[in-house]
Amino acid sequence: MAAAGCVGGFGDEGDGENVEVGMVYATGGLGDDSFNDMAQQGAVQAEEEYGISFDEAEPESVGEFDDAQRSFAESGNYDLVNCIGFAQEEALEGNAEEYPDQDFIIVDTVVEADNVRSYLFDEPAGSFLVGTLAGLLTDEEFAAGDGETNPDESAVGFVGGEESPLIESFHAGFEAGVEHTNPDAEVFSSYVGDFNDTATGQEAARTMYESGADIVFHAAGRTGIGVFQAAEDEGRFAIGVDDDQSVSQEDYADVILASMVKRVDEAVFDAIGTVVDDAFEGGEVEEIGLEDNGVEAVYGESIGDEVPEEIRDEVDETREELIDGEIDVPDEL
């Protein structure tokens, strides 16, 4: 897999003063402390290091992606348009063809066009790792921060946003990781149908906690904040996604065991760096995985250190086995 970490080879400080970038975020928008905010961090880093400037669009529905992409491309002012999220695929297929001189990237899916660079992440492998953690810990008598497990109930949960192949790949990897270390554990799951519905996320997670789950992993954008709220209310644990949510959601740091971090910021920074360096190449797919630290299990800043050492060691061993190809991880249920 190509390493997102190679971004340091692109551009020098200040080289991008004439580079303008358009950012089209996924539905759910900024302030999710997750996927969109990570993408914005990549643009901010490029602004600070290269001197580029960027403008932003926050579509509220899938139907608005076409106009958002088109508004950047039609202006002729933008060297690169970054399309964040798999749901932009259909709109970008049309706009990439209509604006062949405009360079684009898309994250989490592939658009085959000479002016589009696609970035994919190995979400199943990262989710497998946090599933391994959850599967091991659910049978342990463990308390930290504001949460505790119930070792008499071997159960964990998954809350997804919109049901799609991408979100199902998080679910599939997580469930496989749980089964790998704890085949008797039950995995509850719920897709709430929205990436921006905290109340529904809270209710979905609360139902799981009340049914015996002591750890719930979410891949649900802003909806996942509700999972943290439910964990706090029920005195259980949660696992975040995309960003280290024990930091970005510090009010819930005492229940966030870990996060499946997905370095969307590195993808955005990488793409902008290629433009600054006049080295952008469309028609390519960048695949980013564990070996690149493009996806990783990051323990919570507040309570992660309290996870027993033997469990942390087993998670580390599993990571190496995944990188070495010794474990096959499903990407669908």
Automatic annotation (TrEMBL):
PANTHER family registered for this protein in UniProt: ABC TRANSPORTER GUANOSINE-BINDING PROTEIN NUPN (PTHR34296:SF2), TRANSCRIPTIONAL ACTIVATOR PROTEIN MED (PTHR34296)
Gene3D superfamilies: 3.40.50.2300
Organism from which the protein derives: Natronococcus amylolyticus DSM 10524
Key word Signal present: yes
InterPro entries recorded: BMP_lipoprotein, Peripla_BP_I, PnrA-like
Cellular localization per UniProt: Cell membrane
A cellular component annotation (GO) from this entry: plasma membrane
Membrane topology: Lipid-anchor
Keywords: Cell membrane, Lipoprotein, Membrane, Signal
Similarity section: Belongs to the BMP lipoprotein family.
Name this polypeptide is given: Basic membrane lipoprotein
Domain (ABC transporter substrate-binding protein PnrA-like): residue spans on this chain: 21-331
